[in-house]
């Protein structure tokens, strides 16, 4: 596998998994950890990835990065949500479908705040 092919495969894998350890990537691609580190450095110039050291160390992809996916800007999404309140029936369903497709995915923190953390009622612990 050539360098370009490996780097493309690494970014695809990271976008799917969202996180991986350098030693696992080295094993999976049959290269040294130094090679993976060089690949990550090169990829970090073009993609929103970063490394972290310590017990949860590894390579991460920024939370809201999904290749090839375009999202509404927060102002656009807020306006559509405001307008959807007045819709009914099929129009409301269509607007909800649009918002699911193009709205930004909720972060884990936001989901926990909105729906609770599974330890009782929403917002309590």
UniProtKB/TrEMBL annotation:
A Gene Ontology molecular-function term? DNA-binding transcription factor activity
The record ties this protein, via SUPFAM superfamilies, to: Winged helix' DNA-binding domain
TM region(s), chain numbering: none
- SMART domains for the chain: HTH_DEOR
Where does the signal sequence lie?
Answer: none
Any one Pfam family match given in the protein's UniProt record, by short name: HTH_DeoR
Domain of life of the organism encoding this protein: Bacteria
Q: Where is the HTH deoR-type domain?
A: 3-61
Please give the residue ranges the record annotates as the region Disordered. Answer: 102-125
Cross-referenced InterPro entries: DeoR_HTH, Tscrpt_reg_HTH_DeoR_CS, WH-like_DNA-bd_sf, WH_DNA-bd_sf
| Residue stretches of biased makeup (Basic and acidic residues) | 115-125
User: Which keywords, in A-to-Z order, does the entry hold?
Assistant: DNA-binding, Transcription, Transcription regulation
What is this protein's record name?
DeoR/GlpR transcriptional regulator
Species source reads Candidatus Scatosoma pullistercoris
